[in-house]
Amino acid sequence: MHPRGKWGASEGPLPGMSLWRPSPVVGEDAPVNDHITPPTAAPALDPVRAAGIATMTTLALAGLGWAMRAVWQIRLATAGEPASGLPDQGEGNHRPLTSLEDSYHLVSSASGFAAAVCAIAFLVWMGRVRHNGRELSGARPRYAGLWVYLGWVVPVVNFWFPRGIIADAYRSSAPGEPLPLSLNVWWGMWLISMLTGVGLTYADSTDEIIARAYTDVWQLLASDAAVIAAAVAGIFLVRAVTAVQERRMN
Question: What are 171-194's pLDDT values in tens digits?
Answer without folding.
Answer: 999 998 999 999 999 999 999 988
